[in-house]
Amino acid sequence: MDPKGTIAFTSVGRVAVWLRHLHRFTSPDRAYPNPSSCHLPPTASSTIDPVIKSHRLYFISAHEQPDRPFKSWSALYSTELQCERNITRLSPQGVVDYSPAASKSGAFVAIASYGSRPWEGDFHELKTDIVVFPSSDPENRWVVCERGGWPTWSGDTTIFFHRQADDGWWSIFRFDFAENPLEFSDFPVLPLRVTPPGLHCFTPAAFQDGKRIAVATRRRGKRYRHIEIFDLESKAFQPVTELLNPNFHHYNPFVSPNSESLGYHRFRGESTEGEWTVPHLDPVASPIKDLRMLRSNGSFPSFSPDGSFLALNPALDENGGIKVVKSDGSKRWNLIKSRVAFYNAWSPTEKYVIYSSLGPIFESAKTTVQIARIKFDPSDLNGDLEEVPCDVKILTREDTGNNAFPSCSPDGKSIVFRSGRSGHKNLYILDAVNGEFNGGIRKLTDGPWIDTMPCWSPNGDLIAFSSNMHNPDNVAAFSIYVVKPDGSDLRRIYVAGRKGSSDVDRERINHVFFSPDGEWLVFTANIGWVTAEPVSCPNQFQPYGDLYLVRLDGSGLRRLTWNGYENGTPAWHSGGELDMGRLCLGNDAGVKLTGEFDEPLWINCEID
């Protein structure tokens, strides 16, 4: 039977908050100071990087499953816009392509291609090559330049692209065909570096005058990416977006065919025109008929027993805490404010009791993090209060190190959680009311590895969790394990292949959660690799982040999300069906956007 119910999850760098802006040029060196904005609607589409040329749409889609795990699902497709819109796959079967670009005449298409090889683990800079083919003959492909991404055409004979130079700076490179590409035979070519060291330059967009390119830059001493125009003759940069909005990320520029308009993406924020709120909950298209999906504006969502509310963490720092949201998205309350909290678990037997982890996330085994039982008055969720009084009871001793990721047994009597009290992060079970002070505690797993993010099954017979016990020296090699609450029948669920295969030990699986019937598990994994070039997204941190389903025996693997962002921390609604049609999505039921988020730490501007 196919899975049913409602899954709530979060996305880092969510699609719903991006805008495109246009600058109109009055002359080659001057732009109007007030750009217009084009809103992008919320979507979970598997289609990205669209390009239109000569009434034909080229786009990357991840809707076709590859022949094995650890290959990206991304491939190039096209469709004619002026007649019957049949979609044609242009990437050969088994080939992974990203970032298409069409030449000025539309005669040629360039893409960043990974070829047919399996993922080698690269992420910060994908090992893609620039590949060109005639639009009339997509099977006639040439590798024109090795190691490069995000191609853009100037005319039909010049391609610009980005890659990380040997000195560590992301830079723009170019190569020129001396003649018609169809008649050029000296491939691959040695490209010429265009932008200088000392700053990062990403995602070029060429003007058709052959004299300028627009790029996203990241400069020393600056927190944000900005769009600048680089003059190919004078070698000078002209700032565009920093003059308008210095404290927002701007990225992925694009130029109109007549070179009179410059577009780019930017995070919405309170200082901008138009909408500057994001809904508490967003419906997301699901690939499974009877399974509904909600993107929450916060991490680690947890449903109340009857599904009326969700608890979540709006941020994972001192600005976070715990908030409670109505499941129709119409109202949100502060439960704990201005305190670091993460990973919530609503008691299945007490509607107004939530368990959470209080303390910093992603810290060592000895860092103090405590399991808390949080109780509040149900009547406070029916009024106009924004802050709900609550009683916080700590269940773990302060001197026991890092205690986190609680999950409650179906009878509400016990909590399973991860603790670093032994020096290793293993699983423990304690009394859900009195904690380890009067109720006692016992160890569930034991070993020099990491066991984390446990989830108790709905009928109480199993606990699922993530662990690297099969490879303790690799802190990124997590797989799914299940164990009975008494510690017996520990076993691994093999997702990416059979036991002993080369793929299963590459699994990086976290955020495991049971379906309401206990037959399925939803989780976040890296087995589909990435859907877009990670460096093109300012808020891209790690090479996993799509949601999958699998049965307890490892069969029936299904992918739920396809996009360029990190999707995770899922929770599965265990009550009756939610009325998705009653979701409140307007500005009066959302949170103000600040436009603030961090560049990935692997984008380093302190290069000698």
From TrEMBL:
Superkingdom classification of source: Eukaryota
InterPro entries reported in the protein's UniProt record: 6-blade_b-propeller_TolB-like, WD40
Protein name as catalogued: Uncharacterized protein
Organism: Hibiscus sabdariffa
Species classification: Eukaryota, Viridiplantae, Streptophyta, Embryophyta, Tracheophyta
